[in-house]
What we know:
Layout: E1 4-8, H1 15-28, E2 37-41, H2 47-53, E3 60-63, H3 80-86, E4 90-93, H4 96-100, H5 106-118, E5 122-127, H6 131-135, H7 139-150, E6 163-166, H8 180-198, E7 207-210, H9 215-223, E8 229-232, H10 239-247
Parallel strand pairs: 1-2, 1-8, 2-3, 3-4, 4-5, 5-6, 6-7, 7-8
Bound molecules: phosphoenolpyruvate.
Amino acid sequence: MKPLIAGNWKMHLNRADAAALAGELVRSLPAPLEYADVALFPPFPYIADVLGAVADSDIEVGAQNMHEADRGAFTGEVSGPMLLDVGATRVLVGHSERRHVFGESDGATNQKIKAALGHDIAPTLCVGEQLEEREAGQTEAVVERQLRAGLDGVSAERANTVTVAYEPVWAIGTGLTASPEQAGEVHAFIRGLLIDIWGDAGARVRILYGGSVKPANASALLKTPEIGGVLVGGASLTTNLFLPIIRAAE
Ligand code: PEP
């Protein structure tokens, strides 16, 4: 399977810059893009503009979060049917900023994963330990808890629609990157868990690495066994950083 190179734009850019960045990526990449899948996760209000900008390309567009209910009195939230309505086909679930800034629980991530799958929106479940947890030797326990809880009740038939992203919280937006060895160890652990949960289907799930991925470290990370792509925050906001990361997958 091709590696997935995903850009999480968080709460950055404006409408014109978001469309311009997406358009520049389309013009700069070969079509079809044989060596990688590319997905962009713009802020909600720009999803439609970015979809317009990538219309004639293979670039996919998703949302950074969604609510598990289809509709209702949930001020400030966005539902799966609304994402589908504008054309988003992917969603990030349980990003560390959702968990640690907005207090999203493992149970909430599970409901969101199930709701996304129910609408045929492909979820990326993000997991990862905080610095204190790594230092206390709890990395595997934290990742296992988040993974098993997030995927609870999801059948093996749906495994091919799910992506997992390992994002050590201490490496997100800090400039600190997990070394390929550190990332590879956790990725191998996650692979074992996915096979335990889903059998053979768990062997085919893409596991992305995220946390200060830059042009300088992308290639080594992408060559590491079990790293099936990267989830990129800061370096996905400019073509001069994001394009070399995409090309590192070649
Ligand atoms: C992220 O937002 O998922 C991320 C990994 O951010 P950064 O690349 O900026 O560390």
